[in-house]
Amino acid sequence: HAGKVVVVGGGFGGATAAKYLKRANPAIEVILVEPAETFYTCPFSNLHLGGLRSMDEIAHGYDELQDRYGVRVIHARAEDVDAAAHKVTLSTGSELDYDRLVLSPGIDIRWNALEGYDEAAAEKAPHAWKAGSQTEKLRAQLEAMEDGGTFVMVAPENPFRCPPGPYERASLVANYLAQYKPKSKVLILDAKDNFSKQGLFMEGWEQLYGDRIEWVGLSNDGRVTRVDAERLEVETEFGTVHKADVLNVIPPQKAGWIAERAGVTDDSGWVPVKPETFESRQVEDIYVIGDATVAAPMPKSGFCANAQAKVVAAAIAASLESRPAPEAYWTNTCYSLVGPEYGISVAGVYRVVDGAIAEVEGSGGVSQTGAPSATRALEAQYAVGWYNAICQDTWG
Ligand code: FAD
Fold it and tell me: ipTM of the predicted structure?
């Protein structure tokens, strides 16, 4: 008996963990639990919003994991975890026992944390912060918008999934508007004063879109405190009401709810982990990866979820053989497209220093400001290369 591992969630973290457990030791029984038969990636979903990529081009399935790697994939939802008995209950009613459990459930929305933003409101003012029907809804609204309309985006405080994601989205929406609805604008109302790759985004916005994108930060009354999805209106901290033609609310988030059921979240709503192995700090034999975790300074990115999954696969394979886990390190690159031929990036390398995750000094960095357009075009190509490679590594 080489051991039995149940993995919950077939996104960037979970699918990678399942595959790399099998690669570490094919004798380990690996079961992946994921409700969806097709996974739509958030990475490049902003290209769909901008009319640059179809949903089929960001869709991935689980055949390779099953047929080539021998992962058993069950399309169901994990409903409960009994950590003491080492059992997971599924939406089908069946139970799975495990030696080790991996949770990579991504994020859930904190409904009503922002006044007026509940599940019904998300039908009118989509978040599109999980890719799939929400992405399609927002795209349809954008397509139906009259020329001269305003696309209003509400951006959240830290921490949240994909720090540069809102600003890439604003860019690709502006790119679409510039071509098809040239009298229209993008207004970003932000709950913070600084955002990822801000200088680079702003340089690109000025070059490509002039004043089409307006960004209002916290200090300039950018923090939205109430949403009226029916009227497509939002109200800020100091009482300014903004009317949208299309309203995209990116709300406050927390770890996917199954993490709370498993008892691994803390008061923040996220999951504290032991940095060396990403085992839960609170519950033995449960490993948590991806957006659900507190892993700063690593961002909540698909790249990091994939990197964390490999560390967890190696740590679990070792622990099932009573060997110590190998020393962990992680890398990340977040590419963003400011335009279809205008890419920028931020990269980092991380290790454990004095019991905490730290960015290795002198590693990584961001794209240069003031770089020639040929450099930006090259980075846009690297972004596509990155997308193809990580999807191959995760589901292929
Ligand atoms: P996910 O990939 O979301 O996977 C979670 C899975 O768990 C889902 O399939 C869900 O169905 C499943 N699940 C949840 N609960 C249960 C349950 N109870 N039972 C069974 N299954 C369950 N990252 C990058 O690296 N590069 C980018 O360019 C990039 N662009 C982005 C753009 C946007 C607009 C957004 C929103 C995000 C972007 N990201 C990007 C971030 C990236 O999408 C996430 O960091 C990544 O998906 C995290 O992986 P995960 O495994 O934690 O969660």
Answer: 0.99
